[in-house]
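Continuing the series of single-chain predictions for the mutant panel. This is the parent chain; the variants come on the following pages.
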Amino acid sequence: MMLVVTTARKPNKDKEKEAREIAAANCLPYIPRENKSLDSLLNDFGAALVVSDRRLSCFTPAGELFYHPNMAAMRIRLLRQGKADKMLEICGLSAGDSFLDCTAGLCSDSLVSKYRVGEKGRVLSLEQSLPIYIVMGHGLKNSGPPRFQELARGIELVHADFRSYLQKLPPRSFDVVYFDPMFDVPVMEASSLLPLRPLACVQPLTREDIALAARVAKRKVVVKQRSFFVFSRLGLTEAGGNNRKISYGVLEIKENESDS
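Parent structure:
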């Protein structure tokens, strides 16, 4: 699969310029749209970043990937109503904390975490897939409801393989290190994730990955997985109650490990 950048049909000069800039910044080929159909582009290349008046999207035969903070917005709305959020509870995040999301994806967990840690807190999100990184980075900066834009722009999104990135970070540099890897067995109701799947870098987590994360975490390493996942394989303790679809594995960082 080759990733290219193009525009919607009959773009204005600003959109064409934006598409060319995205291509140049990411060392990707720019393909003038002219009268080419989307199907024709996908047949020729496999994946296309399309700049339109509405948004930046990535199209593959699996569908259209675009930034949409809907799930995060719903979770934040519930938080404002005084409801609990399971992920935040398990991570134990508070105002001013630092949160490292090693698998940014659609950035929902990063947005919710940024809401919790606030202006004085830090959320750094890593995404290994270049098309996902480009689409989500553009969306965080330019899209979403006005009340969300300031929150979204507070997230530091980095294009990086978390394994390499974790090795470069100082010990105990984030309160919580978090993973939400692509599930081996998808939750079929999660239709918004279907266009994400062919673009994602899918690599099962290992004990070595958890060890890298534990070196960086001050308090916890947290992993989200399907409810039937055996967390003991990774040296984690299962948490998260009785949700029939998902659960969490946690590694608590003990004080005597904090400088090891």
